[in-house]
Amino acid sequence: MAEMSGADIFVQCLVDLGVEVVFGYPGGAVLPIYDALYNHPTIKHVLVRHEQGATHMAEGYARSTGKPGVVLVTSGPGATNAITGITDALMDSIPMVVFTGQVATHLIGSDAFQEADTVGLTRHCSKHNYLVKSPGKLGQVIHEAFHIATSGRPGPVVIDIPKDVQVATARYEKPDLSTHVSYRPQVKAEPDTIAQAVDMIAKAQRPIFYTGGGVINAGPEASALLRELAELTGAPVTSTLMGLGAFPASSEQWLGMLGMHGTYEANLAMNKADLIIAVGARFDDRVTGRLDAFAPASKKIHIDIDRSSINKTVPVDLPIVADAGSALADMIAQWKAAGHKAADLEEWWARIAGWRARNSLAYAEEGTEIMPQRAIADLFKATKGKDAIITTEVGQHQMWAAQHYHFDAPNKWLTSGGLGTMGYGFPAAIGAQMGNPDSLVVCVAGDASIQMNIQELGTATQYRLPVKIFILNNEYMGMVRQWQELTYESRYSESYSDSLPDFVQLAQAYGWTGIRIEGPQELEAGIRQMIETPGPVLVDCRVAKLTNCFPMIPSGAAHTEMLLDPSQVSGTMADEAKALV
Amino acid sequence: MHIAEETSERHVLSITVTNEAGILAKIAGLFTARGYNIESLTVADISDDHQVSRITIVTNGPPRVIDQIIAQLDRLVPVHKVADLTEDGPFVERELALVKVAGKGEHRIEALRLADIFRAKVVDTTTESFIFELTGPSDKIDTFVGLMRELGLVEVGRTGIVGMVRGKD
Ligand SMILES: Cc1ncc(C[n+]2csc(CCOP(=O)(O)OP(=O)(O)O)c2C)c(N)n1
Q1: Is a pLDDT exceeding 80 seen at residue A178?
Q2: pLDDT tens by residue, A125-160
Q3: How crowded is residue B90: how many other Cβ atoms within 10 Å of its Cβ?
Q4: Which of A132, A418, A534, A559 is 20 to 30 Å from the Cα of A76, by its Cα?
């Protein structure tokens, strides 16, 4: 077989791996690769406006399609700009492979132009990373990287390729990846743990499923299995922010999201449960609140593909290291084989009904302003049945979207949960639209967050992507302002969004349609216009400026200390609470 | 407000890894990034083909942190196996030290006599100094160094420990 340049090996690997889209930005250290990609017949390159945008696009693409996202950037500033997205993908377990150019091997370590120690910089924010020093190794590394990014607990893998390695030649053959010397994630649970788990569920009087992004990562079958197991057992289901959509919100067994801005019934049910079945969720501090008061009377089963997530913050009674889908399938089989019937949970459901009756997501609507919750509720109404993909930025609008938009299927809800990255939502929507050209994709944004990657308006224009941006414009970094109201007696230090652009004109300048919604009477029609207008549309929806997001469990408080409405806010907090994020 | 502290246990971890560039930084960095302690760390190639290294880390922390450290190490791609010798034990641990002592007269004689008791070897001599080589568990070396401090200790070099579970497996 003839030798190929490193750049051609790169391209051939992507073809062999079935890669259809690359999000990237060129520069000196990746010119050979860009030349090899020139006019490529099957690989589409999306030229972004900032490398952070490329990483979030890849995340959005991955989360909405289940396929790994691919990023290509240059050395130095290209690589450093990508770091936020790499970290975001690590925190939220998103499969992604990031290629960075590097200075030629003989220049490494000499502070050459646009040299950065990319492998050093990404060591702790990637699942794995490589510096490839010879073209002969490139094929093996690229195939292995895709395997690592997409298997086990998914995550970002970085491959740093010096420029001379892109130019030099070697033979390439599709490598055999059947056995890796050290990387062998455990997918299947130990059978006796499954039997124990099923036994515990059958005996429980107050069970609850607490599910997370791991169910989504395990593929749509896992979501179907979750639904089946929930139906078999009759137990209620709640989910983390990352897990929304894995269980249908239209089900009677759905309690809504749990945690800091979760529903009263979800958090109270967690608090009073006698058995928590955690599936692909990691007992994050946003979920548990004060640890020593978290679900005190419950036994806990924890199913996770990453053993380090188990017993990290909350000690559990039955750890099960496995893929969520595989474990759920095994549990269903075991439940049926053991001849279990759903236990009588009538009393449990009666208590839950009591908590539900508090109607914790209710909000007062008076006056002439649009309540942000109403805007989301109307967006949900208008897009229902359209199978829309919703992405969000970070802040109050994100929490309102999680609370008031209801998902019945996985891979439709894309948000930055672990890292909480403002600037995620809009590029993620572009990536999702690339992967789902016929879907309605809406980014719910805040006036501050949207400005973090607003330059990507040009990217959507260039590729004719009909993305919709729905800004809940409250002229504040609302979530920051809310915390200042709760903790610092409403001293709004630097949380006002001063000098906002005219978003409508800005959109128009990029060739988008811009729509402004100013009052409740315009809301429905404005949303309809957004959906019906072909091509990309930005909506500047002016909402009540000082609304806060409730319910809320303040940092470091117990689930039972939930604030349900503004009247419960005191404006100050103990230092211990102030010290928590 | 004050920051509370938890009580710790000492554990010796033996980690086999693929011998690739950056592996040491990866392991050491994991400890700093997650706020774990390293008391000592040793590393050397242990395979014929130079593909595998063994890293021995002495760490301390509350039991749940030790469990986390092991789980975190275990999920790194180049890590083959993490053994907690303290948990798997009983095990042998050894460390090598070079101890330079300078002095004349009684001090010099006393240093030599103590070295003999500790089975330390003299590896360098001048009329006014010795370098002793000593292997043993860390506390033995601590004791020896403590004694030498009174007799003219100049400097100490220690390797950090390596360890192995006793018995045939
Ligand atoms: C990159 C980044 N910087 C800072 C923050 C901290 N932060 C969290 S929410 C928020 C305000 C977001 O404001 P906006 O986008 O207007 O949304 P709102 O809360 O008003 O809905 C800030 C600054 C963050 N999450 N990400």
Answers
A1: no
A2: 999 999 999 999 999 999 999 999 999 999 999 999
A3: 9
A4: A418
| Stretch (H or E) spanning B40 | strand B40-45
Which residue in the set A182, A310, A315 is minimally distant from B77, CB to CB? A182
Q: Per the CB < 8 Å rule, is B74 touching A315?
A: no
Which residues of B fall within a CB distance of 8 Å from A306?
75
The angle subtended at Cα A187 by Cα A183 and Cα A190, nearest 5°, is 115
User: How far is the centre of ligand 1, averaged over its atoms, from the C-alpha of A415 (Å)?
Assistant: 13
Q: Is the CB of A88 under 6 A from ligand 1?
A: no
Whole-number CA gyration radius for chain B: 19
How does DSSP classify residue A178? S
In this prediction, does ipTM exceed 0.85? Answer: yes
- Using the predicted structure, report yes or no on whether residue B1 has a pLDDT greater than 80: no
Closest approach of A312 to chain B, Cα-based (Å): 6
- Which of B25, B26, B75 is closest, CB to CB, to A307? B75
Are residues B71 and A308, on separate chains, in Cβ contact within 8 Å?
A: yes
* Average pLDDT of the residues of chain A: 97
Q: Please tell me the distance from the alpha carbon of residue B5 to that of residue B102, in angstroms, as a whole number.
A: 41
- CA A482 to chain CA centroid, nearest Å: 23
Cβ(A247)–Cβ(A226) below 8 Å? yes
Q: Which of B21, B134, B106 is nearest to A117 (CA)?
A: B21
Q: A478: Cβ below 6 Å to ligand 1? A: yes
Residues sharing a CB contact under 8 Å with residue A427, sequence separation 6 or more, in sequence order: A48, A52, A53, A54, A55, A56, A57, A60, A453, A456, A459
Q: How far from A354 is each of A82, A266, A273, A364, A440, CA to CA, in Å?
A: 48, 12, 15, 21, 37
User: How far apart are the C-alpha atoms of A264 and A511, rounded to whole Å?
Assistant: 44
Give the tens place of pLDDT for each residue, A433-445. 999 999 999 999 9
Alpha helical stretches, state H, A243-302: 264-272, 285-288
- How many angstroms separate the CA atoms of B42 and B56, rounded? 5
Average pLDDT score over residue span A514-541: 98
